[in-house]
Amino acid sequence: MSRELSPRETAERSLIKTYRKTLWNPFIAAVKRYELVRPGDRIAVCISGGKDSMVLAKLMQELQKHTDQPFELVYLVMDPGYRPDNRALIEANAELLGIPVTVFESDIFDVTVQVEKNPCYLCARMRRGWLYARAQELGCNKIALGHHFSDVIETTLLGLFYGAQLQGMMPKLRSKNFPGMELIRPLYCVHEDAIIAWKNYNRLRFLQCACRFTESRDASGDGIGESKRQEVKLLLRQLKKTNPNIEKSIFRALHGVQLDTFPGFKYRGGAHSFLEFYGSLPETAEDQMVSNGGSVGEDAES
Fold first, then answer.
1. In angstroms, what CA-CA distances link 293 with 282, 289, 302?
2. 52 Rama class: left (phi>0) / alpha (psi -120 to 50) / beta
3. What HEC string does the chain produce?
4. pTM of the entire predicted model
5. Predicted pLDDT of residue 201
6. Which residue in 268, 194, 214 sits closest to 29, CA to CA?
């Protein structure tokens, strides 16, 4: 008679078996494709208590078990001012899932709740600064965040619709303010739906953002409130009904940007115009299509 698995064992097994195709494989693909983990790394896995950071912690834990290129992990939880019950939920989930967390406190919620414009942006920037600083104190050279494939797509559309910019979310970044530190996003190829499915399969309840702003938003009748990200989520959900691959198309577009078709772009903080290169530009796509007897429109649809 086989032994009944503990909740931790069930969660771990489901990552590499039940959800191998949708969680484990895309996670490993991102780690390899973007060279996110190196032998000798000491990585702070940043845990907010939500589903994304918790599944990231478990995936990183599994990777550490199975890799032949050893690296170290620190599971870092920053309490930005959670209510006691929310803090308790994070600690209970960490214990249940076998994640040995290191907790430290800050007053970020007290600061950002007083800001009327872009409180979420300020909160994210402050969180990142605190996490970098603490991770560096603990001897880490990288922090790992739980941004996933869906975050990449939504952030791109948010910038386009509301920020007047075509801007993506990188799988890894070097810190400007903390020399020697790097940010990595190992869930870069993992869809949010897969994370939700894993959470529900294991009957887990994780923390939402839990700040005062989102608590009031979640209490609104439509579940959207003033959140532009929620609007984009709903828009993508509608668009996928007629084009199931729309998110994949956007993701691939981010990996194949054709700068010679843009009138302007920025590179490393510097603004550039197509006029700088106009005199030396090779034959354009439009010229090639005309010479081949076709049209740009036909090429775009093929």
1. 19, 6, 15
2. alpha
3. CCCCCCHHHHHHHHHHCCCHHHHHHHHHHHHHHCCCCCCCCEEEEEECCCHHHHHHHHHHHHHHHHCCCCCEEEEEEEECCCCHHHHHHHHHHHHHHCCCEEEEECCHHHHHCCCCCCHHHHHHHHHHHHHHHHHHHCCCCEEECCCCHHHHHHHHHHHHHHCCCCCCCCCEEECCCCCCCEEECCCCCCCHHHHHHHHHHCCCCCCCCCCHHHHHHHCCCCCCCCCHHHHHHHHHHHHHHHCCCHHHHHHHHHCCCCHHHCCEEEECCEEEEHHHCHHHCCCCHHHHHHHCCCCHHHHHHC
4. 0.85
5. 97
6. 194
Tokens standing for residue 41: 């790394």
pLDDT value, residue 301? 38
Residue 87 in tokens = 């803090």
**What pLDDT, on a 0 to 100 scale, did the predictor assign at position 297?**
42
What is the model's pLDDT at position 68? 87
Q: How many residues does the chain have?
A: 302
The CA dihedral of 15, 21, 26, 31, to the nearest 10 degrees, is 60
* pLDDT score, position 111: 74
Per-residue pLDDT tens digits for 266-280 = 988 899 998 998 877
In this predicted model, what pLDDT tens digit does every residue of 28-56 receive, in sequence order? 999 999 999 999 999 999 999 999 999 99
CA 29, 34, 35, 41 torsion-angle sign: negative
Is 80:62 a contact under the CB 8 Å cutoff?
Answer: no
Write down the pLDDT at residue 227. Answer: 76
Residues 130/116, Cβ–Cβ less than 8 Å: no
- Which residue positions in the chain have pLDDT lower than 50? 217-224, 289-290, 295-302
Q: Would you state the structure tokens that stand for residue 9, as one six-digit string?
A: 């064992």
Cα 197 to chain centroid distance, Å, stands at 17
